Amino acid sequence: MSLSPEPLIEQRADPWILAHAGRYYFIASVPEYDRLELRCADSVAGLATAPATTVWRKPDTGPLCELIWAPELHRVDGDWVIYFAAAPSREIVDGLFQHRMYAITCTADDPLAGEWSEPAQMATPLDSFCLDATTFHLSGRDYYVWAQQDPEIPGNSNLYIAELAGPTRLAGPPTRLSVPEYDWETRGFLVNEGPAVLQRHGRLLLTYSASATDENYCVGLLWADADSDPLDAASWSKSPMPILVSDPANEIFGPGHNGFVVGEDGTDLLVYHARTYTDIQGDPLWDPNRHTYVKPIRWDERGFPDVGRAGEDTLPPAR
């Protein structure tokens, strides 16, 4: 009998939940990597049974015809925006897929029913493998954070930040925030990816995922003072240890690619994906059983997040 806690939603990796106007919206990578789906419910737990609406599907050919990964739904300048990564093929070149970042926008009140724009590429100074874009709003400005490979730096991806000039373009040059350097960031692959930002207790908290997408996958933490310049790399500090790792006792493995949302009762929640086993056949990316989990965040006496063990305090799905 499995000891694993029940996931909120099965077979949904890279989960993201956005709270807006009293409702909760969910988006994630689907196992087929072929479309963008949205769900909406009045509660986080209710997302488990909410119907999924496909708002965009990949074309058969072209630069976005394969491997639709890690979508996130955001509000930027009053518009709905879905950021996602896509590739022109499944070919691996020099050890990496060929993903670039894209965005689609919608001006309707209801993003499940409204019309979405054609994808626009999110151009950055480096034309290289990139993915996992997120945004946050601070002091009247919108910022864009993502993962990208720099050919001059060993590894798969580093973390970057830039200000947004609008939902689909950067306002200026990016700043590199983090590269894989610790042992727990370099297991299997040298990876910093999946950033998410939360502002609490006078700080910007930036979580990210590291290492290969098997049981080594884990969550790290950067932070900066909320009144500092987030585009200045010197504003940020980095935890030498991860804040969320595999929990074999509860059969939760490879927790990562997290997001944040505030529950109906005001509790800060951590949203992440994980598997319930380690015996993966072939490349972990083709294993569909990364499930969405949600758990509460506690705060220590310094105002830093304590997310506990991956398999504990899991929010059950609504029935």
UniProtKB/TrEMBL annotation:
Matching Gene3D superfamilies: Glycosyl hydrolase domain, family 43
Q: Would you kindly state one Gene Ontology biological process term found in this protein's UniProt entry?
A: carbohydrate metabolic process
List the Pfam families hit by this protein, alphabetically.
Answer: Glyco_hydro_43
**Cross-referenced PANTHER family:** GLYCOSYL HYDROLASE, HYDROLASE, FAMILY 43, PUTATIVE (AFU_ORTHOLOGUE AFUA_3G01660)-RELATED
The terms under GO molecular function for this entry are: hydrolase activity, hydrolyzing O-glycosyl compounds
Q: What is this protein called?
A: GH43 family beta-xylosidase
Q: Which family does it belong to?
A: Belongs to the glycosyl hydrolase 43 family.
- Name the keywords, alphabetized: Glycosidase, Hydrolase, Signal
This protein's superkingdom? Answer: Bacteria
The answer to whether keyword tRNA processing applies is no
